[in-house]
């Protein structure tokens, strides 16, 4: 295949993918084919053994309809469904909006903005477990630092945050936002940097104001990335175990559990693994559409900024 | 239009100077808030670790009588939860390095077949990886726990290594296939004309040219394995086989937890990944932009 042909193929992106498949002299033959299979084999093995088999096993474990009857008559389950919804919808959207605003802030130039970025990244660089443990103790009503600060500054006794369902849930969500906000800010910042500067220059020549540039260049070009980030983080938030488990511990009286922690609790604390699997499986009606949309949007050829 | 230019002329230049200062002061205030928000839980960790046992319950914002006693206790394994601390630290290293190695090996081989050799139906492999990436790991924890028992790997480090490799490899394949597109196909072709077999091309051409992506993905896998909690906790239960993450969470089991020891352990556990993260941030950033949106 000549260089020109290849260049054409690249230009045609999708249709080109087929043409470029024959880059190795018209496909694979004989020994090469065996090599190719051998190279792919480790991943195929791992995928079958630790993804396909567990999924099939899980479906089998959670296939009894009686389990779902049991779940839906369980008030703790219904509480955790509501908690999960709040956690995912509020946690992800508030965070992504903040991340979008902050990406604009960190887009500014100047030495101290760069220095601040180094500090701002710390929550993301810290492992989840120690960070959430610290937040748990930070929020302690009696000896926690937050209430100490409130007392020193305003002479005001803060509530016992983790002893109430709603403040507890808010703390879990807040901790999750604290931990993951830097990551998404960096992603959105990269997105902003990828917007070609000449678009702004051309708009400036045409007399566009800041608001115009934002509304007609930044927003439309970032919309797709923003949407992918929201969907991807919804999946991550749906499966997040650490924040709830370590900040509120699911308490008081299991009122702040989310599906991920409730499933594990049923399976390993109460020793009802089938009920645990059913708990997690009940999230599938939400998870499957998300996964399908994401898989379409994240295809390597389209995933670039 | 003319009205606005009129107003502008009257306002400048003092208005604009004040306006600029105002914006700058506002930004500084916002920056201060961001810094406090980011640091305070971490400061809390240090404060408790430096406190004596009484200091924790003193209601002060600063460590009143800072002492390194808690760190001494952790380093010398002088507390019963910490009796095997360094052994567990070693376990964490073994898990981290094994996951890194396996992820790099399996991921680069797979993306070599799909991206360079263009195996027929290779897209199925990419899709399988993508699917694994978007399924929350915690949802598969219960069946994987059972399956590890079936495989006879219960309470063995290799069970965690295999499970975490499974969850780290999709990202590797994603990044490698993105990055691989920047390596010209002509290199492979000329090597083949010279009689190289695919294994030689993989080792002599593909891997050396992929070095930046290997560093990015290697760091990602190492951090993922070191920081992960749920699978470590479920699959490893004895003090001998535990990793540091599980040992650290053990402190939560008892009511009378020595919080200062716990926070000192937490800091020692958190330092290696933080250092690694800052050390490789340049490569990680490159990896992120290469991959578009990836965690």
Description:
The complex is a heterodimer of chains A (305) and B (295). By secondary structure, chain A is mainly alpha-helical. Chain A contains 16 helices and no strands. Chain A has helices at residues 3-11, 13-20, 30-61, 65-72, 75-106, 111-120, 122-125, 128-138, 145-154, 165-194, 197-205, 210-238, 242-248, 259-269, 273-281, 284-298. In chain A, helix 8 runs parallel beside helix 13, helix 10 (165-194) packs across helix 12 and helix 12 crosses helix 16. The longest helix of chain A has 32 residues, at 30-61. The two termini of chain A are 29 Å apart. By secondary structure, chain B is mainly α. Chain B folds into two domains: 2-66, no CATH class; 80-291, MetI-like fold (Orthogonal Bundle). Chain B is 75% helix and 0% strand. Chain B is built from 15 helices and no strands. Chain B is flat and about 75 Å long. Mean pLDDT of chain B is 85; it is low at 289-295. Chains A and B meet through helix 3, helix 6, helix 7, helix 8 and helix 9 of A and helix 2, helix 5, helix 6, helix 7 and helix 8 of B.
- Using the CA coordinates, give the radius of gyration of chain A: 25 Å
Describe the largest sheet of chain A. Answer: none
| Strand portion of chain A | under 5%
Query: Class of the largest domain in chain B in CATH?
Result: Mainly Alpha
Number of helices of chain A: 16
Oligomer: heterodimer
CATH architecture identity of the largest domain in chain B: Orthogonal Bundle
Overall tally of domains of chain A: 2
Kindly report the CATH topology of the largest domain in chain A: MetI-like fold
The CATH C-level class name of the largest domain in chain A = Mainly Alpha
Coarse structural class of chain B: mainly alpha
Structure annotation, total helices of chain B: 15
Summarize the helix and strand pattern of chain A as letters.
Answer: HHHHHHHHHHHHHHHH
Question: Can you say what the CATH homologous superfamily of the largest domain in chain B is?
Answer: MetI-like
Summarize the helix and strand pattern of chain B as letters.
HHHHHHHHHHHHHHH
Number of strands of chain A: 0
Poorly predicted segments of chain A:
1-22, 301-305
Q: In the residues of chain B, how many domains can be counted?
A: 2
Looking at this structure, what is the CATH superfamily of the largest domain in chain A? MetI-like
What is the overall silhouette of chain A? globular
């Amino acid at each position: 295949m000549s260089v020109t042909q290849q260049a054409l193929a690249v230009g045609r992106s999708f249709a080109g993918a087929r043409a470029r498949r024959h880059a190795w002299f018209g496909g694979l033959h004989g020994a090469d084919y065996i090599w190719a299979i051998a190279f792919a084999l480790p991943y195929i093995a791992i995928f079958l053994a630790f993804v396909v088999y567990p999924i099939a096993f899980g479906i089998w474990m959670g296939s009894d309809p009686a389990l779902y009857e049991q779940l839906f008559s369980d008030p703790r389950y219904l509480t955790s469904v509501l908690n999960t919804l709040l956690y995912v919808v509020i946690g992800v959207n508030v965070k992504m909006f903040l991340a979008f605003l902050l990406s604009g802030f960190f887009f500014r130039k100047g030495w101290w903005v760069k220095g601040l970025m180094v500090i701002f990244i710390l929550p993301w660089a810290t492992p989840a477990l120690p960070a959430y443990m610290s937040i748990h103790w930070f929020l302690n009503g009696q000896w926690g630092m937050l209430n100490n600060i409130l007392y020193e500054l305003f002479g005001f006794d803060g509530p016992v945050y983790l002893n109430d369902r709603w403040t507890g849930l808010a703390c879990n969500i807040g901790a999750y936002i604290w931990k993951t906000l830097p990551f998404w800010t960096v992603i959105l910042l990269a997105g902003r940097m990828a917007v070609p500067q000449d678009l702004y220059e051309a708009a400036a020549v045409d007399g566009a104001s800041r608001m115009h540039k934002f509304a007609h260049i930044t927003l439309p070009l970032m919309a797709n990335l923003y949407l992918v980030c929201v969907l991807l983080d919804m999946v991550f938030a749906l499966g997040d175990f650490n924040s709830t488990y370590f900040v509120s511990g699911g308490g008081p009286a299991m009122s702040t559990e989310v599906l991920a922690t409730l499933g594990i609790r049923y399976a390993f604390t109460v020793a009802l693994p089938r009920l645990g699997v059913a708990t997690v499986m009940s999230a599938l009606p939400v998870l499957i559409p998300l996964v399908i949309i994401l898989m379409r949007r994240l295809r390597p050829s389209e995933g670039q900024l | 239009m003319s009205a606005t230019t009129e107003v502008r002329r009257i306002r400048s230049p003092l208005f604009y100077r004040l306006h600029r200062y105002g914006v700058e002061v506002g930004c500084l205030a916002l920056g201060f808030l961001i810094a406090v928000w980011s640091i305070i839980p971490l400061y809390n960790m240090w404060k408790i670790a430096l406190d004596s046992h009484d200091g924790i319950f003193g209601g002060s914002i600063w460590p009143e009588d800072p002492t390194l006693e808690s760190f001494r206790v952790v380093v010398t394994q002088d507390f019963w939860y910490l009796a095997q601390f360094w052994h567990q630290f070693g376990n964490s290293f073994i898990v981290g390095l094994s996951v890194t190695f396996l992820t790099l090996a399996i991921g680069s081989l797979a993306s070599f077949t799909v991206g360079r050799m263009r195996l027929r139906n290779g897209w199925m492999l990419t899709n399988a990886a993508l699917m694994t990436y978007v399924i929350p790991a915690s949802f598969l924890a219960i069946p994987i726990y059972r399956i590890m028992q079936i495989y006879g790997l219960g309470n063995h480090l290799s069970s965690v290594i295999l499970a975490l490799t499974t969850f780290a490899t999709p990202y590797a394949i994603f990044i490698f296939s993105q990055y691989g597109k920047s390596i010209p196909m002509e290199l492979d072709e000329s090597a083949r004309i010279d009689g190289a077999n695919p294994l030689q091309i993989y080792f002599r051409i593909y891997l050396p040219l992929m070095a930046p992506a290997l560093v990015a993905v290697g760091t990602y896998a190492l951090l993922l394995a070191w920081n992960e909690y749920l699978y470590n906790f479920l699959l490893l239960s004895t003090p001998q086989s535990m990793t540091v993450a599980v040992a650290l969470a053990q402190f939560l089991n008892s009511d009378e937890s020595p919080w200062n020891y716990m926070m000192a352990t937490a800091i020692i556990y958190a330092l290696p990944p933080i250092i690694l993260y800052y050390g490789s941030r340049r490569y990680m950033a490159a990896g992120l932009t290469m991959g578009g949106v990836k965690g």
